[in-house]
Amino acid sequence: MAHKLEVRGVGYAYHTMEGETPALSDISFTADTGEFIAVVGPSGCGKSTLLSLLCGLVKPESGSILIDQKPLEEAGDLIGYMLQKDHLFEWRTILSNVSLGLEIQKRLTPETQNELKEMLKTYGLEEFQDMRPSQLSGGMRQRAALIRTLALKPDILLLDEPFSALDYQTRLAVCDDISTIIRKTKKTAVLVTHDLSEAISVADQIIVLSPRPARVKAIIPISFPKKNQLQGESKETALKDTDHAAPGRTESTISPMERRNTPEFSQYFNLIWKELKHDGA
User: Fold this and answer.
1) pLDDT for 127-176, tens place per residue?
2) What distance lies between CA 107 and its chain's CA centroid?
């Protein structure tokens, strides 16, 4: 089966009057439909640059990026980007904010607006649709930002530390909430984060980058017991079964919060931490 996203030998450098600064070198990985990828690495290694390449804001100097086996420039509206801040406009209501992308693309119709209202209802924001952003909590604002992105119906979501501006308690709840929404909509997602716990709690695989110029140090598949296995099956059976779990499955996948309470969680954390510390991160 063809991959939804393929990154093949991508390299990129920043050029100034003072010279060249290599950012990424020979980056390669794939993501399948419905798969959740997390990218971690030392500060300044080029994680956000990678997202800029994946969404087409800048072009790679070497290598290629394919979506459904086609060059990135032919992807059109298949990619959605969720930033660190929600960037909701205070002078617009929540409904008007989540409609913004459709307005810009001249796709806002009575039908698409009804779809937006249904999404607000589904994700718990229906009663807040006529309020202003300042009247909502940080978690609600991030949910609204996600709805604004999902309204454009992208196949791939790029997430640039979307929970970093939230306090720790809210961050845990919103990470759980938003990652569950993404899985239910069966979107392929690529998350950049500094938080190893966050990466392990949501990802199907974690890409560990080296210091700049970033290279792929390791690609670590992540699997956890399913809900029915946590409720009574043996750990040995659970681990055997999860080896064959399909990426992005939602009917029996445990939540990010539930992942944090399993023995596997600390094992993955120690493994990834050692990969990063080996480079002095």
Assistant:
1) 999 999 999 998 899 899 999 999 999 999 999 988 887 888 888 888 88
2) 25
Which amino acid, residue 85?
Answer: K
Q: Which of 234, 92, 205, 85 is nearest to 146 (CA)?
A: 85
Distance CA 120, CA 122 (A): 6
**Number of other CB atoms surrounding residue 65 within 10 Å:** 20
Q: Alpha helices, DSSP H only, in the chain? A: 47-54, 94-98, 100-104, 110-122, 138-150, 168-184, 196-202, 227-230, 235-242, 256-259, 263-277
Largest CA distance in the chain: 63
> Residue 6: which H helix or E strand, with range?
strand 5-16
Residue-averaged pLDDT of the chain: 87
Residues 269 and 262 sit within 8 Å (Cβ to Cβ):
no
d(CA 277, CA 275): 6
| CB neighbour list of residue 252: distance below 8 Å, 6 or more residues apart | 226, 227, 228
Prediction pTM value: 0.86
- Backbone φ and ψ for 131, nearest 5 degrees, come out as -90, 170
Element holding 220 (H helix, E strand): strand 216-221
How confident is the model over 1-18, as pLDDT tens digits? 689 999 999 999 998 888
Residue 28 is classified by DSSP as E
